[in-house]
Give the backbone structure.
Amino acid sequence: MQIRASSAGGDCPALGSGREICAFKAFLVFKLYLLLYLYASSKWAPHRGGLAILAKIHIPHLHRASWAACLALASSLVLSGCTAMKVKLGWKVSLDKTPVSSIQANLSNSQGIAPGQKLPLVVHLTAPDGKVLVTEGQGQGKVMWKDLEVSASVVTVNQKDIASLPGDPRVSEGKVAHVTVTVPSHPGIRTDLDVPIRYNHKFTSDFSGSSGSSGMDGRAGMDGTSGSMGSIDPNNPSPGGDGSNGSNGSDGDNGGAGGDAPPVQVRVTLKSGSPPLLQLSVSTVGQLKLFLVDPQGGSLTVKADGGPGGSGGRGGRGGRGAPGVSERPMDGVGAMA
C-alpha cells in the first residue's frame, strides 16, 4: 500500500498565491499525523502491518524550501485542536477518564507574592495508586488546564497558569491572596491555597529617557565603467582595457541622541506595624508609583538614566567593478588561407 498525492505548483510558498498549495500540503502532513494516531490505537497493531504502511507513505513536492512552512501549518492544526490524539499518543492525560484521590496547588515561590509580581501556578494530582500527575506549562506535566477550574481573589490567574498581583500596594495591603482549584469531572476534589503578600522584594521603578533614532543608511557607490575594446589588427594589435573600480559607498549618518530622563521626586516615610514598612512614592510629570518595602530584605531601585543613543546608519554598498573587455576582430579582417 502506498499513499500518494500530488498538487500543481511545485513549491509551497508561505505567502502570496501559493497559500492554497501550502494548505493542501499541510493537510497531507496532517493526514500523516492521523495515521500515527491510528497506529497508536489497537486497530493498527504492528503485527497487522502498521509499520510497513507507515514506511510507504509518500508526499511529493515537499522539498526543503516548502517543508518548514507546510509542517508548521500542519503542526499547528494538530497541536492546537486534536486533544483526543494527544491523549491517545500519551502526550496528555484526560482527567475525566483518570481516577484522582487528592490535589495540591502551589506557586513557584512558596514565600508569597509581591505587588507587581507574576508567578506560575502548578497543580499536583495524586491517583489512588500513588501516581502523581502534574499540570502542563510550568509544571511540564500532562494534565490539561482545561480539565481544571481555577478561581482566585486579590490575585488573578490567566489561562496560561500565571498568577499576578497588581503593582499598586493599596489593592492588596492587609489582605491574603487566595486560589481555589477544583476538578469538574471529580466532584469533591479541590484544593485551597492561601498566598501571603510579601514586601521583602527587590522593586524597580524606571523613568529612563527614550532611545535615540537610528541614523540614515549611506548611499551606494557608483558602479565602475567597462574597459575599452581591444583589437587583433595584425598591424596594430592591442589588448582590451581593464574595467574601472566601483566607487566607495558613503558613510551612514550618526544615530540621534537619546532622550533626557525627566525630573523624578521620591518621598519616603515609615509605616509602623509588624514588621515596619517603608512607604515610598516615586513621581514625575504625569506618573505616580507607590511602593511598600520591607527594609529587611527588600529594596527599591529608581532609574532615571538618559536614553541610549540611536545606532548609526549602515555604510552604503560599494559600487561594482566593471569587467574588462576581451579583444575582438577588426571589421573587414578575415582569416588568411
